[in-house]
């Protein structure tokens, strides 16, 4: 299992550390979280830097076509979101912390997509897998609505989780496999500049590492 850099999500900054799934104690409380935040390359990169996150995979969810391909999803005819599934150790980082971190990595005010990517696959959402997650996501949304430093309405949806289909291998860890192309895409798409305009900070200072 490959080593992955992490960033302390509680502080949204922190010491870079390394971890692997193989090092997780057998009695660890391992959970998962599914979110959509536009381009899954970027969401995967942001969350893989969080301390306590064990793995992040890119995929498709929320649509009506079985086992969709990237080409089908990108054609905007399957109803799927580009999404990620985050596996994390609850004793190190909580679902509440990850939920609050999520908001600071997206533009939750855009009903049409994210940054330079527009259309249904790029809309934002949080997919609850049980009633506990639903309640926590609702509380996180209520909190961010009260504390957001901008006036625009938050349009990110809270939706019940459905089948999560893994994206093709070349999409997984794209930011590490193709760092130059990834950095150019992220910069030219205006993701970090828009996040800074909205939130006054970049949630993860190591987006480009």
Automatic annotation (TrEMBL):
N-terminal signal peptide: 1-28
UniProt EC number: 1.8.4.11
One MF annotation (Gene Ontology) recorded for this entry: peptide-methionine (S)-S-oxide reductase activity
Catalyzed reactions per annotation: L-methionyl-[protein] + [thioredoxin]-disulfide + H2O = L-methionyl-(S)-S-oxide-[protein] + [thioredoxin]-dithiol; [thioredoxin]-disulfide + L-methionine + H2O = L-methionine (S)-S-oxide + [thioredoxin]-dithiol
Domain Peptide methionine sulphoxide reductase MsrA per the UniProt entry, residue ranges: 33-183
Superkingdom of this protein's organism: Bacteria
Record key words, sorted: Oxidoreductase, Signal
Active site: residue positions: 39
Main function: Has an important function as a repair enzyme for proteins that have been inactivated by oxidation. Catalyzes the reversible oxidation-reduction of methionine sulfoxide in proteins to methionine.
Family, per entry: Belongs to the MsrA Met sulfoxide reductase family.
Designated name of the protein: Peptide methionine sulfoxide reductase MsrA
Species assigned in the record: Marinomonas mediterranea (strain ATCC 700492 / JCM 21426 / NBRC 103028 / MMB-1)
